[in-house]
Amino acid sequence: MDSDVALELASVSKSFKKSPAIVEDINLSLTRGQVVALIGSSGSGKTTILQIAGLLDKPTLGVVTIDGVNCTQASNKYKTHVRRNFLSFVYQFHYLLQELSVLENVMLPQLIARRSKAEAKKKSQAILEKFGLESKASSMVSEISGGERQRVAIARSIVNSPKLLLADEPTGNLDPTNSLNVFLLLHSYVKENNSSMLIVTHNYILAEKADHIFQLKNRSLVKL
């Protein structure tokens, strides 16, 4: 497999018992430095593909390869290692912890990865400054706007320098200006760090800024 490929889905299908397949024979490859957008109607299986790509769900058929390793039959311990050290999720709902400050929310993934508190604080402060949120570091989540919360969530998602971002409608709750700003933050992170991003979005204006667009239609992927 090409060492520049961060994620590959090969002939991936997902079904439950005797129900029709949710997605069928999905083939998708993301190289480093690449942003790929996935569009499709509600209920078409876009989130299922992201969950399979992020090792949160197993395909019924097919192979998921991340960073050159076949993860389909990998142990739960290895999958946890990949999710913690190689990839990160960005969701439509920010899932910030209300009882923690903005700074503490961004520090959390680093503390989970067993970095020192001093190192985590320093890096978190730097990334908040880059996102224009340095003045909000000591604020509680309830004290900042919706657009600011989503920017904090993105800061948290990239603070451990993931090589693969999986974004599920990350701008879905935002107005057009904040939506574009959030997407551009993600896009610039990918390009500056030679990472990769698979983004599910219903926003075609944002999708057009990706390197490639795929549509999920009739359970299969079509490249646009």
TrEMBL record:
SMART domains: AAA (SM00382). Keywords: ATP-binding, Nucleotide-binding, Transport. Coiled coil: none annotated. It comes from the Eukaryota. Residues 7-224 form the ABC transporter domain. GO terms for molecular function: ATP binding; ATP hydrolysis activity. InterPro entries: AAA+_ATPase (IPR003593), ABC_transporter-like_ATP-bd (IPR003439), ABC_transporter-like_CS (IPR017871), MacB-like_ATP-bd (IPR017911), P-loop_NTPase (IPR027417). Belongs to the ABC transporter superfamily. PANTHER family: ALPHA-D-RIBOSE 1-METHYLPHOSPHONATE 5-TRIPHOSPHATE SYNTHASE SUBUNIT PHNL, LIPOPROTEIN-RELEASING SYSTEM ATP-BINDING PROTEIN LOLD. This is Jg24864 protein. It comes from Pararge aegeria aegeria.
